[in-house]
Design goal:
198 residues; alpha+beta
């Protein structure tokens, strides 16, 4: 269990922690929707893409919000990953197989933004990024939860080791005591025999 927990610590340290520390959107504030537009005829270019400038086959949803902390009009993205995938669109769907489902999902998201116009969001207090995100990929609670299980495993493994050592200690004491009694009895027997012979 201890070895497994150490492996989990190492895995979390090289996967989740770098993304958490890399994110600059650390401060939570309140955003108010100014406009949510779907550009039906404009497709979003792939920022990760190749030289031939591939396009995503889905409409581009752009959500502009008023940042309460500064009063600025900024663009909203779903997560940090959304900005890296496509800086022109606020939402990038995961599955692109069915274009009708993707279009319906984007329209639903746009209507939800128009319905619920005030919501919490995250911004960069340092001013490096002038946009905001709706949710963080790896929030503080998620990071604590990720470290919780290996910590419990490590603690449990250490307790098992301690209990095993404690349970072995009385047995060794009993064995030593029995050996000492046996030695004293043998000494007494030999002493009695020696006296009888004399």
């Amino acid at each position: 269990m201890v070895a497994c927990s150490m492996m989990m610590y190492f895995f979390i340290g090289i996967t989740i922690v770098p993304f958490y520390t890399k994110s600059v959107w650390t401060t939570e504030t309140v955003c108010k929707v100014l406009k949510a537009n779907i550009k039906d005829k404009v497709f979003c270019p792939n920022s990760e893409g190749s030289e031939d400038e591939e396009v995503f086959p889905y409409p581009c949803l752009q959500v502009w919000v008023n940042l309460t902390a500064s009063g600025q009009e900024v663009m909203l993205y779903q997560t940090e990953d959304t900005l890296e995938k496509n800086p022109k669109c606020s939402y990038v769907p995961d599955k692109l197989e069915n274009s009708k489902e993707v279009t319906a999902r984007i329209e639903t998201i746009a209507s939800n933004f128009k319905k619920y116009q005030t919501f919490p969001c995250y911004y960069d207090p340092g001013g490096t990024q002038t946009n905001v995100i709706l949710s963080r990929l790896y929030p503080s609670k998620g990071l604590y939860f990720a470290f919780l299980w290996p910590t419990l495993m490590f603690t449990g493994g250490c307790l098992i080791i301690v209990l095993v050592k404690i349970s072995h200690s009385p047995l060794q004491t009993i064995k030593v005591g029995e050996e000492e009694r046996g030695t004293s009895k043998q000494f007494m027997v030999w002493s009695d025999s020696a006296e009888t012979v004399n």
